[in-house]
Structures
1.
Amino acid sequence: MISSRLSIIAVVFALSACAADYDPPATPVALPPEPGKPVLQRETVTVSAFLVGASSSLAELNTARCEIARGGRTVTITTPMMLSIPVHAGAQAPLDIDCSAQIGPRLARAKLRHLPETANADPADTTTRHYPKQIAIRFRQ
Amino acid sequence: MNIRFLPLALPLLLAACVEYAEVKTPPQSVSFTESRAQAAVRGYSETTFRSFRSTEKGRKDNQELVGVRCSLTGTGFKAAFVTPAIVKMPAYQGAADPIAVTCRTDKDRTDKTVKPINMTLLRMNQSSTTSGGILGVALTAAAKGIAKAARDPLKDEFNYPVNIHLVLGVED
């Protein structure tokens, strides 16, 4: 009984520790469309970076520099940032995210390739999302 | 004294009997090879480096060697010294990387990788002892776990060990 209550308290604390510390700027950074392809819709994705420490501790980084590439187009941002991604008809390219952040004495790097959740975009359907609303980049301590 | 403490007390008593060579040189500084590593320093802590000779493979004896040339390399800094030596090691917040230490004599060489210590976690683990029985121990462990998970890892302080012993003639 007591241990289950302690578990609940621990989970509540752990979840509160995961809450974002920083708000991204209100205006998203636009990823340029692929040349010659019409844009069906735009999806906004918030890219955040975290430092994962020992014992499951977590801290959001507001200084991580990330290069985000998709379909041959690249933008550079500082986390957290909202990204406006153009969706073209047909197959969606993955998002390649390459981040670096000064942590202690080193310039730490973290890379992530995020595949589209829905591989193909149907021109008749502009409501289905192809990328998640949030992408978290994790740096290890 | 309770007999169960004997295995703990004996090594401590024996360690207290070991006489180390006097460090005759003043504490020396590391030299930085990367400006970002220098800019991130949050202080310095002294580490004493000592070298020892092992006469038999797999066995370390307590024969200290004086005058062994060593070098250390960390992320963005390095140092060269002759044992025994005190080196002012950089302390960092958020993260720190292991250092590689190499010592050489005419006959032997040893390489050792030394990890930094997360002093914040160490202090959290050492604090909050309890005597409230099993329930007290469980509550303290749970509270420690919550505190450790809720802390900001960017504020974790990292130091290198106070003493680093390098043993030549055997794989350490």
Note: The longest helix of chain B spans residues 133-150.
2.
Amino acid sequence: MRRVVEGSHAVSHAVDLARVRVISAYPITPQTHIVERLAELVADGVLDARFIRVESEHSAMAAVIGAASAGVRSFTASSSHGLALMHEMLHWAAGARLPIVMAEVNRAMGPGWNIWADQTDSLSQRDTGWLQFYCEDVQDVIDTILIAYRVAERVSLPVMVVLDAFFLSHTYEPADLPEHADVDEFLPPWEPVEVLDPAEPRAFNQLASPEFYMEFRHKMQQAMDEALAAYPEIDRAFAARFGRTHPLVEHIPAEDGARAPLALVTTGTITSTARAALAELRDRGTPVDLVKLRALRPFPQDEIRRVLGPYGRVAVIDRNLSFGYGGIFAQEIRAALSSLADRPVVYPFVAGLGGRDVTPDTVRAVVDRALDDEPPGDILWAGLKE
Amino acid sequence: MSPVTLRTSRDLPPTSRSLDTMEWNHTGSWRFLRPRYQDKVAPCAEACPAGEDIARVQMLLAQGAFDRAWLRIREENPFPGVCGRVCSHPCEAACNRGEFDAPVSINSLERFVADHARRQGLAPPPAEPADSGRHVAVVGAGPAGLTAAHFLRRAGHDVTVFDAREEPGGLLRYAIPAYRMPAEPLAWETGLVMSGGVRFQPGRRLGEDLGWDELSRFDAVLVAVGHWAPAPLGVDGEDLAVDGLALLEDVRRGRPPEVGGRVAVIGGGNTAVDVARTLLRLGAEPVVYYRRRLRDMPALPGEVAELREEGIEIQTLLAPARIAARDDGGLDLALTPMAVLDEDGGQRPRVVPSGHPEIAVAVSAVVTAIGARPSPGTPAAGLDPDGSEAVALHLRRIRPRGEWAERPPVFLAGDLVNQNRTVVAAIASGKEAAVVIDAALRDRALGDAWSAIRVGRKGAVSLNRLAGGDRAFRLDHVVRYDDLNTIYFQYLERKKRPRITLDERRTGFDEVHLRISASLALSEAERCFHCGQCDHCDNCYLFCPEVSVRRDPRAETRQIDYDYCKGCGVCVVECPRSAMVLEEEPR
Amino acid sequence: MPIDLPPSERMTSGHLACPGCGAAIAMRFVLKGLGDRVVMVIPACCWSIIAGPFPYTALKVPVLHTAFETGGAVASGIRAALDVKGDHETQVVTWAGDGGTFDIGLQSLSGAAERGEDILYVCYDNEAYMNTGVQGSGATPEGAWTTTTPTGSPKATRKKDIMQIMAAHAIPYAATASIAYPEDLVRKVQKAASIRGTKFLHIFATCPTGWKVPSEVSVGLARLAVQTRIFPLYEVEDGERYTINVEPKGYLVDAYFKAQGRFKHLTAEDLERIQERVDHGWSRLEALARIA
């Protein structure tokens, strides 16, 4: 069913389609529309689930950890400071191998207070053991939530589905809302291996000594590897049913069958802006290929090397910043490419922090600078006031 | 149970979760203190001259195991029916419950057990050891003699008891009034002694119908003929007075004297009280005259109280001065007012004439009860400190000198040697006699064993300990009030002993105290703290932080699993009755 | 009368508690009261260690070990999950120490209580952060030594009144209990289990190690806390109906304080002041019980 849906509500409806049974959330702008709609769906009996109206994000994550430990498909949503408050429990959820899915609306961290788009909040959670998928548009949001549950339950790790504040969370777009029956086929009920059960009393998450801790971490890494390996198959299954595909690395050449001198790597909603800007540039005779990166973790290193390796130059736009180094996706890409003997020059741009608009002009400026003979450097600011 | 073995990463679950319990972890290795079940000595048992295992008896009673309770008493004392009536019950004075609310009514419970046994016709198990081939003569069938005879017989000796009177029992049968010591329960218990194989020869008075030629044919002789000879009053007209013991014996023989009017009873001991209460029942109007104060009376306080309840007057600080016959057939009794001279040392105070004028009272008769002396025929050497030696607390042996060198060993027991001439002291004496004579006949020196067979090393002789029974394994520590964890005890009223009416008491010789009901006995026995005796209350089990106390639900046992016990000692402190100890862990 | 408790045993030997641990005794009693339809949540506390490391457990009930401040929230999540699975019978029980309850976990506990989650939250109170080595907590009593309130400057402020806090949430049932009164404790567990909604049990659990007392007095000291009125045993229903369950003998507090190394620096004046506070607290409690 094709409808015009707000990005936040797309999350809510996807959660309904996934037949989530326990939702726990605490409000934070710009996540509120997601949980408000979910509360309504539950209250109206549309979604047969419990909505736990907790007193903090920390408790929201703790509550879904409890629910998932009891073997029930669970969901939460947060953003920025809320996500930061959850941090401890993000580790716990992953270490406990719980397939929780969370919608995370990218918002800047204070101070000063800033409610607008910025990826530093989610990227700061890089090492918690969560999978992170970044969405470009409303359809992407719907589809990614469904795919996320399937991946999470396959490898027993939690997944963060990330969408930009306002640019996506509060934007209405037409999108296909799948039918329940189709989703049920794609995403059957979760069948957990072990749950809290009085009939089979076990302790979970107890002290793990140095004798065993490392093996448990090794198993988490193996699960990440498995997620990476299984993703294409899951994506194909999704495509087969719904006709849409969402590769972790999407290669969008300016001209079919040709390689442009520059590849531009983007994540989130900037990808849509870049699509428009690059189309215009191509039409003006400056072909630049676009690479949409969808995952921070597991990081698709092989795919990155395969797609970007042959380029002479790669520009990356990061709407985030690791202070003292630079844009975080650029770091990851540079690290992945470093194993290649012959590798492209990477231009790591930082743009759009704290909700500053990344416009087609910004994209064009980035392209110009990367194609000119600007020294590549470790951090290149785009759109910064002089 | 061994720890789970996880050799490879593949053996591990995806995340930290349990595969087994912690029971592989033997935390007993942490222990440096070791708790242990250890029964100790209850103060009542230590105080009991008969060495009865009182706290254990109360436990059996509270469990409704009346038969076993009776057998438990009889291990140490063949006369619970007697003691349950006439014992001075020092146990109750020692009872830790006295400090909490009121002592357990041990005496009435003993009576209950004995009456239960008699009603049920219980029989003690037969004496166990083979005949020793040795013969023992016991002269005097009072509590001391019969007790000795009973235990000597059970030790396998051939025992003959001689007594001047027709029936066994001594003063229990012929002095203590029937309202305190009825004939039937006594006869049943003496009958049990006899049915154990003790021979009884009545009508054999030492020195008259029984001579030393005959006694010398035995391998050992015990003389326990008691004190039946009246003590002289030492005043003019003494011959006009009646001997109290003789009066009591006449009554018990069914030959009550004709008495009436005001009768003076001289004395302050149990005999004086017995005489006065007997006279009342015979229709006289007795008045007790005592040279000291009420509080100084050696009679049992309970007996004195009952006497007063019955309306008998006691006049104190009056000593007889003279008795004179009157023309009307009555007597004039002159009494000297006395004053307390000093009051040191907790002893009965010395009294002297106060200087006030004499008092004269007109009475129909004067009965003396100022104490008695060894019965005629008692060997003088036995009473002579040079002619005999103390061989136990309540036992003397005539030194084998002169004529006694030719005779078998001769021992004296009961009132003849006891300072405290109570029935239970006589029983204590009889037990010591049995132990000593048995050892002598078997050429076994008791020596160091002597303290080991005494309850708590200082109390009475215990036959159970002598035989290596469970009491031999008790710690000799006597449990005091401060050793208890009294939080686990509730205040419970001491049950009153039911009695017949005052009218019935004044007019007849029915037993004053009624047998208590089984339900009353149960609830009174439940008051017992069971000091030092594990009664399986399970506090040790329940409070154990290690779940290391194992219970066998069928057998009455608790065991500490030292594989896990960390030695915290909580069980020892939470034991309400101090039936555990905490010791250094042996290394 | 012998103490009468359910025979079931869901704690095993071999656990890692210190000798005489009140928290171990408390756990045993609570499990006896709960029966077998239980899921337990254990946020960081001594019991995170006591229960044993991977791959073992000393508890024969399902246990979810979780982060320090999450007792109320994780239990809420499990409750929700069981409810949506149609299981309304299994009790969800949070088993937290005083730090995880009075301090870091107070927010999540308050949230669960405010939402009326159908859970039983048990705080075993040993009056400091014992697992980490005796640091002061909001439950540490006035005057106590801990490693972060050293003798030179013992804790100057009073113990937080967690019961008043919970009563203020108007939850259907809140009660104090003591390891020294197992029948009362088990009765309260059973009563709590029979009530729908948020139930709170505050159990006094001696820590011989942290309080510097010999292990064998563990239970006796807990009893003394009740008998001195320092830790009265009472229930609060719906935040307003107070019932005192054990009438204390009212011993002077000196006996309790002088028995413990953590209080050995206290002066006679200190004890006098504390006695006044205890007397006042007791009068207040009596007054509340009278109103009910």
Note: Residues 484 and 530 of chain B are 10 Å apart (CA to CA).
3.
Amino acid sequence: MNTVNTILEKINKMPAPKRLRDLIREIRSARTAAEERSVVNKECAQIRDCFKEEDNTYRCRNVAKLLYIHMLGYPAHFGQLECLKLIASPKFTDKRIGYLGAMLLLDERTDVHLLVTNCLKNDLGHQTQYIASLALCTLGNICSVEMSRDLAGEVEKMLKSSNAYLKKKSALCALCIVRKVPDLMEMFLPATRTLLNEKNHGVLLAAVCLITEMCKLSIDAVNHFRKDEFMEVVPQLVRILKNLIMAGYSPEHDVSGVSDPFLQVRILNLLRLLGKGDAEASEAMNDILAQVATNTETSKNVGHAILYEIVLTIMGIESESGLRVLAVNILGRFLLNSDKNIRYVALNTLLRVVHADYNAVQRHRSTIVDCLKDPDVSIKKRAMELCFALINQNNIRGMAKELLSFLEKCEPEFKADCCSNLVTASEKYSPNRRWHIDTVMKVLTTAGNYVRDDVVSTLVQLVSQADSLQAYAVQNLYRAMRDDISQQPLVQVATWCIGEYGDQLFAGTSIEDSEPLDASEEDVLNVLERALVNNNSTLTSKEYVITAILKLSTRFSSTQPKIQKLIAFYNRSTSVELQQRSVEYSTLFSTQDQMRSGLLEKMPVMEKTRVDEPMLANGGEKEDDLLNGGAASPATQTQQPTEVCESQNILDILGGPSTATPAQPAQPPKSTGGELLDLLGDIDMSGSSAGAPPPMMMGGPPLMDGLMGMPAAAPNPLLDMMGSQPLVNGNENSIPDIVGFEKDGLSLNFSFEKAPPPSTVTTMTVTATNSSPNPLLEFVFQAAVPKSFQLQMLSPSGNIVPPSNSGSVTQIVKVNNPQKQPIRMRLRMAYTVNGVPVTEQGEVSNFPPVLWQ
Amino acid sequence: MLNFIFLVNKQGQVRLSQYFKHQDENERRDIEPEIVKKCLNRQENQCSFLDYKQYRIIYRKYASLYFIVAADEEDNEMAVYEFIHHFVETLTSYFDKVTEIDIMFNMDKVHMILMEMVLNGEIVETNKNRILAPLRTMDHASKR
């Protein structure tokens, strides 16, 4: 009795809780965020108290307030259970707020789920359609896997009801269930099929959505709907669409003058899924697509929504060529539209269809180029991407010019992409070397600091290969650097070239319109000095500069003292690399002076080591080849002579020293390392452990690194010199290589090195080469061994296998074989060729037995 | 499908938010202001679409109120754009000149309208009378 009294007292003391309206007013009148927070916190505390009192009268009001608070971003999870209580109430107003709360506050992870499932089950069968619909809506929103399984039967029953209102809602609820548990699809298929016979647009819309989702989830469903024995879906959809466009004005479904555009868009979307890759289905749609495309009113925005969808559908299915041209022309009209949204959509779509119909899109190039000047960044971005997709051999000059002027004016966020793409495109399509050098230089001068590092090596390589243009290039680079030393990549290229071709700075060039350089040796050194001491120069740039100055000591005649002074400038630098260079180079002037001229010889012509095809990401490649026929091949042909082998270069460098040691007379067959490996093999046999650096054969090895011109700063410069061929191949002679896999031009070569006993580890070097004319992109090599082995894979040297055996990807695999069993290995290779992903599998069981004996 | 929809005023205050796909609370608190800020910062001469993470954001401004919808990348932006307008028209025919205040004070009713138009992220009904039927029935019953 006592407790009852106290409760009664409490209730009397407590005033009725605030109305939602008042709470909103109070929150609105809060002037600061802190004030708002305190209002909310106070209210939350009161709501909590109310909940604790198990108060039924105001529960609905409290939950509504809580939902408002939740919307403002405050935690409101403590209201979850109250929502369930509201749902269980017989009153509609309570149920309504309860379900709304459940939708907003509950999620599939909450543990109150079991309770909800029961409530939902009851309400799904409720005779009031609004209550049943609330339950359907909530189920779709919060269904978990178990809930879906539990309630799918109920939903399927409702799908067959005669009530259109429930039908459309249950169809979309079914969609959520199928999305959650795809194997429940079977169950809904028969009922779904009949939904398309409905007259009610809501039901049709929901049915089309459901079918679309099923088609997206499984290819079996697509086939099912394409070739349904009871009812063919495609003609049915065509009929619905026809009725929509032919029926004329119907007030019931009119949206700004177009008959139910949302349904039209949905149907077109579904037709795209059904027609994709199916000539028969596509054939059945051709007529209606043409009709919709020509009959749609475009004075209003709605019309554009439909036309946009139809273009995607036409390009997505196996449609007639005339229809495709019509589609691209629609987009061309969009591009000229004054509405920015429509222009955006046009560019976005062109980007999606450019691979499907390259020539048709190409016709709108000038309009697209104009969009580069659009004030809207979203439009600009897409226009830029599209421009790069459209570049080919014939238009490269004009396009590059436009893009360079775009590069100058565009927002910083575009610059990096624009630079890289421009460099790649000019590498791919340049009409001649001079143009190529000019373009890359212009990129560097306009937006130098935004370019990625690889551009530096690209241009350096380019200049080194273009014998006749070196004077021209070095003079222009000098001018550009003189005018602006803030662009680091430009400084790096320019100093490298000045160092290398300094003697040509003052020579006449073979290019008639270039004027001779008006500068003295002193001037050149002054410019280099500026870059050397400038605080804004990066460390890498300084390293470039100091090496360049050293090289100039043999190329310039009158400025020796200044050169020595500049080189010594950093002999106390805190940067180890820079200091080392400074000190070592200085030594070259004193004790090692007789070696200097030999060491500072010109670098051999650099070979292309990598065929980069990032443009392929745009898919431009395939169409280009089709377009240009054989014209694209010169690019690959010019690479042929350079493909000789990258290690050739290394051999050149080591060629000298190797004569000092007697070379092994027996040449291992087609070993890439050639002499070098023999040399090391020799050393190994003489007792030193594998991998130990051979005795120094000349100068200081670190010096060589610097002279290579590429300050790669590898931990062991000697290794660096020898490229990626690991030293461990030294005793390769004892175990023969095997070819583990060969198909479609891809070949995997395994070479072995066995650690001396008692270690049971075998190190395999897997070298992937590609003799096909197309590069293999995103190459991933995976290996698996039986359980008795342990496998360790080191990271690969790259993920692109260049075409025509012009390079390789190597990866080291270590296999531990403690039980000394015969090694077997499963291989899996994944890569993309011409934009098509390929997966290959294989097994290797012909490993040489010596590996485990 | 539509992932979520916000109604935000010029000051960036959320007036309505509905998620059609589960979104982590904390994540929600992060992305909501970010998207709102992006939309509010856009100029008149920029288009109504922008990309944010995996979403394509479509927004439309009516007086001081922004309607922001996050669709999937493959959705038809123009149709969503049109849908926003249709939603506003429906609100207008219910509230008779809809204002920010109407939406704020009748949150539950706006949610109901939205629920009739979009179910689980898919547009389900576009006929205004049918959309408003349940709400009108309810109003009628409460008046009696």
Note: Helices of chain B lie at 25-40, 77-95, 100-105, 107-117, 128-143.
4.
Amino acid sequence: MSAYRKETTPPPYCIDERMKIPTESPVLHVASRGIAPVIMLIGLYVFFHGHYSPGGGFQGGVLLAAGVLLLRMTLGVTQSQKLMPTTLTLKLSAVGALIFAGTGLVALLCGGNFLDYHFLPVWFEPVYLRYYGILFIEVGVTITVMTTLIAIYDDLLGC
Amino acid sequence: MPWPIEFLLFVIITVAAVVGLSVRNLLAAAVTFNIFSFMSASIMVSLGAIDVAFTEAVVGAGVVGVYGIIAILLTSRKSRD
């Protein structure tokens, strides 16, 4: 493994410089900037409506990531940094995993099982406590899935 | 769902699998894999598994296509050795 690493040259900062700048076609600009907010809105709908219909945290997170990835592909990595900075992606994914595991551990420390929402130290009716507990877990799942997919894209390009 | 539609879906998914494995162009293979994934999602809908179909359509036909195209971008036409 070490001999393999000696022979290969270190990768450049960005694999392809064309992916950092916007594409030439104005049609792609207008179409992507119109479609991407709609995709992210559908992602939020899928996330919040996941209790009653197919969907949930994972699918909503993937749709939110798809909206960002569309702008990453058309506007370039440099101009879409305002929407989701590259340096923030992995940190946010760690925050999402912390939300998921932290809720379970708080329920564990308060006397219940892991992810037992009934024992969370919040004053609610137990039914609503389970309802909002699941919604809070899904927030963590959504943040983790969305930022991890964007981080994979940025890391593949090396940008 | 009536059986001719399901039969058509199975025919399309089989043709897409064979074409995607045998075609030489990498971009065509990636797009054919997307077609395979979308038809798989349609078969899941016909079987009644809406949640699985939604996940398959979003992940397999959406994000994996983007990653495939980026992976093709990382390859080079000729080898460097």
Note: Chain B has a mean pLDDT of 90.
